[in-house]
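Subject: Predicted fold for Ribosome biogenesis protein Nop10, 59 residues

User T.R. writes:
Posting the sequence so we have a shared reference for the thread.
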Amino acid sequence: MHSDIRVCSAWRESHPRPVYTLSDSCPECGADAENSAPAPFNPEDPYGEYRRAAKRRRE
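User M.O. replies:
I've generated the structure tokens; pasting them so everyone works from the same file.
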């Protein structure tokens, strides 16, 4: 599950700032757009309980 917001893959070379879009390509330069954010928290994560338990043991 990923965010629908995408960012131009060539924004560092082509733009002075990141260009965000909902389409598959940049509206300004036509380059491919890539996912701009990591997947959000998934409450149905089957390994979440184990990951949290391991984190508590490390603290």
